[in-house]
């Protein structure tokens, strides 16, 4: 995604879960909770109606009723706690409960706006000590500690003791567990591809290394190459090149400087699986349809936003007040990321990249995605993309209405919701936001692309898509500067974009490629983007879409005057990213200005790999292919944190991406994100409070944490997974 300017009403701060004994109190620590040890009475704690507390062995215990829905439906707690803005606190308690049940323990405001300052949701069992530190965000005398116990179908038993909230504690210093100092692609190197590892070391002279097979036998050896201090991580590193070894197998490790890497394969099978998994991700992002548990075991859920309470539904969505006088049926589409919003600009680049994978790769057409449309005559990748295309088309202003042909920028909740929350349980009103030139051109571009792609399978749909694309393009030319504001309420990301010459170029390019018509050709040739360097120091994304037009002009067969120069510009882009990758000790084809890593940096790495791969397809130059593969190593564990950013791929991978329904970290009854989900990745700006509490001062690659609360470093998003799908398709095709 990249909800750049996201605002939150609820701030969640540091949570540190520890077992064992409490840390000793410092002299200036001040206890805020009264009678937290329940000495002779449960006063002044309260409990919700119908759930009396009893004193048992000096603990407060309750029989929690079954059949409640929300965590906060039943609770015990204590009010009137003073909190001082900027002061650090430790919140700790001992708790037990029937095995597998969950308590949501919070410190927050007892009065409106009910902000939560810290929360943890441990799965209970025998008596265990829990502790977390946080910094209070506001001064109040109406703070609260509470233990929320609702949401269970069955009754259960809960006990708590030694409830403590002390001020004046030093904040915890977070140190990530980065494992062995030898960093590899934990998934797989291709037998015929490059194979490079990194060793983090104090040594500045070459080190001997060995490649071990699964039996521990050395099958290759050599010496490493010192690379000095790597700017992106601040680490002194050396490079290990074992590319001459090509025998397929699993369980390989690299040993250097007394450290053994995590295990990896040499082989291609993982990429065949990933090509499917990265696309299968979209089915469980679908809105407006029941997710079939037999197709996606563990992920079945009710249809979201189909006008069944408590949803207010997407069947008849009004505009924000004063924006329009009609409603639209905008059911369907994909949820954008970890929230329940649907955004045309981001849906556009996502759909383009998936259709681009289809246009570039013949093999992907035969890949089954285990979706309801599997087994029909249309490739599953197109069935999945059409789920979004129908939604995008539904966002267009109908004929006869003001601004007809333009496209609404987005539809989402009126206010942010909390986590976890299944899509069908979202009670918020839904609203259409104003039309924008950018959204209109996104529809024009991808609907035009769809018109040529779907023509062999569904000519009627192709015709409808082309008509929508033409109408949108004409409307955008008549309204060329309707920009989405930086903020127009809460409840969703802004996705504002102040420059739309790139969207005009991309839409004209797709319409030209599909129709061959002169008018669109003229607009392509006249666009300032056509001769600009569109392969910048960052990467293309939802707001910078000229590269999408350029890549398609260079690769989709067409008769544009000056086509060789277009193709040459893509090759030059690939050369640029090749040079970046070669200059990086970790081999990453991404080196942002000032080492300031972007929101969703993993997708930036992958989109630059898309440019490298396209350069390879245009020229056959092995250096482009090798840089693409070596760049992918970063995503799979050859990085400062020594972890894969794709769930289920690699010995250690992201598991807790920010999502309201893959929220296993908050509710063990919910799943982790599915295998093949890409985490956003290192983000130097760490906009969310949780990341700020752990990562302030982080360097480049280290600005990431695998926690569901870190929406700025660890969200999942449809556009990011599209880059992963494209690249994994490219690798599988090799
Ligand atoms: Ca006690
Ligand atoms: Ca199909
Ligand atoms: Ca733009």
UniProtKB/TrEMBL annotation:
Residues 31-150 form the CBM-cenC domain. It catalyses: Endohydrolysis of (1->4)-beta-D-glucosidic linkages in cellulose, lichenin and cereal beta-D-glucans. Residues 271-727 form the Glycoside hydrolase family domain. The keyword Cell membrane does not apply. Residues 177-261 form the Cellulase Ig-like domain. PANTHER family: ENDO-1,4-BETA-GLUCANASE (PTHR22298). This is Endoglucanase. It comes from Paractinoplanes durhamensis. The lineage of its organism: Bacteria, Bacillati, Actinomycetota, Actinomycetes, Micromonosporales.
């Amino acid at each position: 995604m990249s909800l750049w300017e996201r605002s939150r009403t609820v701030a969640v701060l540091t949570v540190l879960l520890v077992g064992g004994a409490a840390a000793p109190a410092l002299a200036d620590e001040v206890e805020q909770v009264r009678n937290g040890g329940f000495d002779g009475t449960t006063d002044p704690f309260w409990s919700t109606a119908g759930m009396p507390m009893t004193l048992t062995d000096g603990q407060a215990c309750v029989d929690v009723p079954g059949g409640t829905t929300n965590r906060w439906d039943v609770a015990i707690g204590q009010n009137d706690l003073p909190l001082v803005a900027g002061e650090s606190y430790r919140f700790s308690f001992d708790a037990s409960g029937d095995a597998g049940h969950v308590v949501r323990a919070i410190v927050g405001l007892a009065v409106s706006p009910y902000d939560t300052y810290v929360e943890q949701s441990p799965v209970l069992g025998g008596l265990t000590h829990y502790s977390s530190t946080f910094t209070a965000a506001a001064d109040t005398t109406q703070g609260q500690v509470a233990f929320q116990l609702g949401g269970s179908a069955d009754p259960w038993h809960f006990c708590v003791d030694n409830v403590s909230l002390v001020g004046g504690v030093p904040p915890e210093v977070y140190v990530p567990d980065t494992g062995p100092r030898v960093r590899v692609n934990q998934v797989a190197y291709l037998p015929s591809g490059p194979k490079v590892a990194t060793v983090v070391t104090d040594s500045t002279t070459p080190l001997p290394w060995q490649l071990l097979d699964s039996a521990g036998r050395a099958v290759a050896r050599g010496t490493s190459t010192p690379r000095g201090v790597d700017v992106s991580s601040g680490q002194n590193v050396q490079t290990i090149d074992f590319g001459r070894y090509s025998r397929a197998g699993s369980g390989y490790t690299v040993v250097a400087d007394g450290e053994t890497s995590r295990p990896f394969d040499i082989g291609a099978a993982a990429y065949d699986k990933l090509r499917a998994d990265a696309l299968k991700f979209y089915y469980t992002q679908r809105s407006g349809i029941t997710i079939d548990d037999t197709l996606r075991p563990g992920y079945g859920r009710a249809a979201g936003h189909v006008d069944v309470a408590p949803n207010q539904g997407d069947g008849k969505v009004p505009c924000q007040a004063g924006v329009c006088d009609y409603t639209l049926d905008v059911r369907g589409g994909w949820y954008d990321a970890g929230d329940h919003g649907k955004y045309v600009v981001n849906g556009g680049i996502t759909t383009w990249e998936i259709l681009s994978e289809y246009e570039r790769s013949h093999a992907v057409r035969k890949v089954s995605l285990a979706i309801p449309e599997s087994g029909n005559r249309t490739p599953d990748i197109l069935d999945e993309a059409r789920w979004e295309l129908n939604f995008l088309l539904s966002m267009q202003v109908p004929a006869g209405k003001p601004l007809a042909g333009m496209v609404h920028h987005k539809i989402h909740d009126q206010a942010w919701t909390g986590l976890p929350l299944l899509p069908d349980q979202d009670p918020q009103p839904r609203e259409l936001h104003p039309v924008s030139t950018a959204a209109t051109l996104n529809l024009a571009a991808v609907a035009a692309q769809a018109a040529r792609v779907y023509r062999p399978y569904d000519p009627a749909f192709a015709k409808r898509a082309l008509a929508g694309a033409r109408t949108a393009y004409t409307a955008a030319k008549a309204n060329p500067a309707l920009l989405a504001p930086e903020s127009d309420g809460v409840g969703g990301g802004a996705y504002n974009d102040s420059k739309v010459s790139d969207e005009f170029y991309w839409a004209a390019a797709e319409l030209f490629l599909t129709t061959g018509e002169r008018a669109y050709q003229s607009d392509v040739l006249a666009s300032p983007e056509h001769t600009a360097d569109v392969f910048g120091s960052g990467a293309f994304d939802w707001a910078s879409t000229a590269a999408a037009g350029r890549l398609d002009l260079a690769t989709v067969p067409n008769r544009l005057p000056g086509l060789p120069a277009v193709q040459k510009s893509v090759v030059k882009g690939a050369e640029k990213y090749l040079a970046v990758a070669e200059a990086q000790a970790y081999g990453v084809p991404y080196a942002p200005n000032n080492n300031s890593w972007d929101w969703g940096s993993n997708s930036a790495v992958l989109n630059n790999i898309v440019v490298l791969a396209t350069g390879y397809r245009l020229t056959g130059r092995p250096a482009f292919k090798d840089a693409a593969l070596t760049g992918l190593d970063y995503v799979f564990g050859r990085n400062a944190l020594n972890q894969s950013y794709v769930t289920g791929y690699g010995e250690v991978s992201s598991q807790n991406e920010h999502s309201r329904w893959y929220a296993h970290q908050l509710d063990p009854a919910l799943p982790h994100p599915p295998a093949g989900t890409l985490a956003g990745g290192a983000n130097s700006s760490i906009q969310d409070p949780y990341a700020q509490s752990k990562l302030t001062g982080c360097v480049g690659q280290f600005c990431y944490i695998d926690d569901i609360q870190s929406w700025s470093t660890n969200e999942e998003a449809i556009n990011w997974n599209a880059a992963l799908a494209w690249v994994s398709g490219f690798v599988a095709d090799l």
